[in-house]
Amino acid sequence: MKKRCFITILTLALALTACTITPDTIEVSINKDENINYHANIVSTTTAPDVNQPAVNPGNDNNVDTNGGDNNGVDTQVVDDSWKQLYANYLENEMDAYYSEHNPDWADGYTFGFIFVNDDDIPELVISTGYEAGGNTILTVVNDELYYLDTRRLGFFYDEYNNILINSDGHMGVYYDYVYTIGDDGFELLADGEYYELYDDADGYANEFEYYIDGEKVSMEEYTDMLESYIPNSDRLQWSSGSSYKSVLDYLKGNVYSNYKEAFRAVVEETLGRENYYYAFIEYDSDSPYLILDNNDWMYVYYYQDGVAFRGEDFYASDSAMNTLYLDTGIIHVYYETPQSLGIHNYIYTANLGSNIFTYANRYGEYDEDGNLLKDEDGNYVFDWVINSESVSESEYEDYLKQVTSGKSVIINPPSESNDEYYAYHTPEEMYDLLSE
């Protein structure tokens, strides 16, 4: 699911003033003098809050043994994980046989990634068409059998390891929340939630809804309580997008690389000779650097995990929002404003095994019955602070953002803010040579 921000934010100075959680930064040496021309100018917060930072799951439960693969990613390793073979067979045989007949390049528009729904060691595989009408297919393996769920449209969220997944979406006045768990026979429907916007032939949609659970009419409160009983708002993980077909298939089949340079070089190699493709390499005091691709339309962040170069969340390469990459956690923070509504929007993306998950913390101006922005008795605007659809206090909102946006960081977009000081772009040919050194 591609997140597109169409609202142009204010200047950086105004953005930093309005967003109270944006920290001051200081320059930190990266000790890469010999390669400074293509490394990032890394910044760090002057003070780090005393909270636990969310760490990207390193995928240790599903590590691929890279010792059996050669440096070119050739499939020489014997894969002894039956679930990987089941997923790989499904992708290569069933899906490809069905789609390639109509479109040999079908996989180019799809994204793929792993999530953990139930509490076993086998991840679920998400296959997303990338467009609402196409929806997703979610695969799971139970007792060495493959099962799948086709979602209505793209939207779903889940409670990691607690075995609840909710297909939540809608269109044209019809909305739904289908609650699933994974049992011995695959996905099982626990609750069928639907709600409909009332429509009058004369007046159109009335912005009023009727709610149903398993076909029985209920109140909005009963409907909301039902969803909350399965997954509280604070525990919802929302899947955003996945990585490429090739990366996920490489992971499943053991076509892995012994180091990140070889994995990134394979990515760059596929774009040699293309115009308007530019790469930047962000290396810092870690074994997990990042590779950025900007094709003047989309921007991608690649990360190295379990012998594979997975593609992270994709963004419009524009000035619509300020995108910051936090290097220690792999978190990408997307920040933009809607000045007319006094809105501040923070989207937090984390990546693991090809999947990109997002949460959000937003501030909205409240309105009166006449549609005017509310002010209190002292003349100050009244705000609603929200984290993942749940209203919170201003302090909770700020504490949450401090927790996830702390540590070393690089502004990866918009280019007007980096001004070639944070990293240098290179053509595919130049980046291929740099990664070959």
Describe this structure in words.
The two termini are 36 Å apart. It contains eight helices and 24 strands. The chain has two domains: 12-59 and 259-436, no CATH class; 78-240, no CATH class. Strand 4 and strand 5 form a beta hairpin. It is an alpha+beta fold. Strands 7, 8, 9, 10, 11, 12, 13, 18, 19, 20, 21, 22, 23 and 24 form a 14-stranded antiparallel beta sheet that branches. It has a four-stranded antiparallel beta sheet with strand order 3-4-5-6. The protein has a four-stranded antiparallel beta sheet with strand order 14-15-16-17. The model is unreliable at 1-80 (pLDDT under 50).
Approximately what portion of the residues adopt beta-strand conformation?
Answer: 35-45%
What level of helicity do the residues show? 10-25%
Ends apart, CA distance between termini: 36 Å
Largest sheet, in brief, is: 14 strands, antiparallel
- Number of beta strands: 24
Radius of gyration over all CA atoms, rounded: 23 Å
Unreliable spans: 1-80
Give the overall form: globular
Structural domain tally: 2
Give me the number of helical elements. Answer: 8
Give the structural class.
alpha+beta
Q: Residue-averaged pLDDT, rounded?
A: 80
